[in-house]
Amino acid sequence: MKRFLEVTGFLLTVFGVCGVIRELTDGWFRLMGVTRFLTENVWFLADHALFANIVVTALGFALMVMSDRIRK
Of 40, 41, 43, 71, which sits 20 to 30 A from 56 (CA to CA)? Predict the structure, then answer.
């Protein structure tokens, strides 16, 4: 379970950071645009793509911190 949380947290953090960079560069940075599917297909996130990517990054970071607190 600990390894699963670490990997999931890391991937969410990387995808969120790439999404933030993509939003700040106005689509120029297309590498790992996974969160684009989330922000374009969910109706209430369509206008708030930058905020959604920041939340994904924070959620991934929180999962990594939480995985360190779990004993094996």
Answer: 71
Supply the DSSP symbol for 43: G
- The CA distances from residue 6 to 2, 29, 37, in Å, are 6, 26, 23
User: Per-residue pLDDT for the chain (72 aa), expressed as one digit of tens each?
Assistant: 889 999 999 999 998 998 888 888 887 776 666 777 777 788 887 788 889 999 999 999 999 999 988 876
Q: Which of 65, 48, 60, 46 is nearest to 16 (CA)?
A: 60
Q: Where are the domains of the chain?
A: 2-69
| 54 Cβ contact list (under 8 Å, min separation 6) | 16, 20
- CA–CA distance, 36 with 68 (Å, rounded to integer): 29
Residue 56, token pair as written in the block: 């994904």
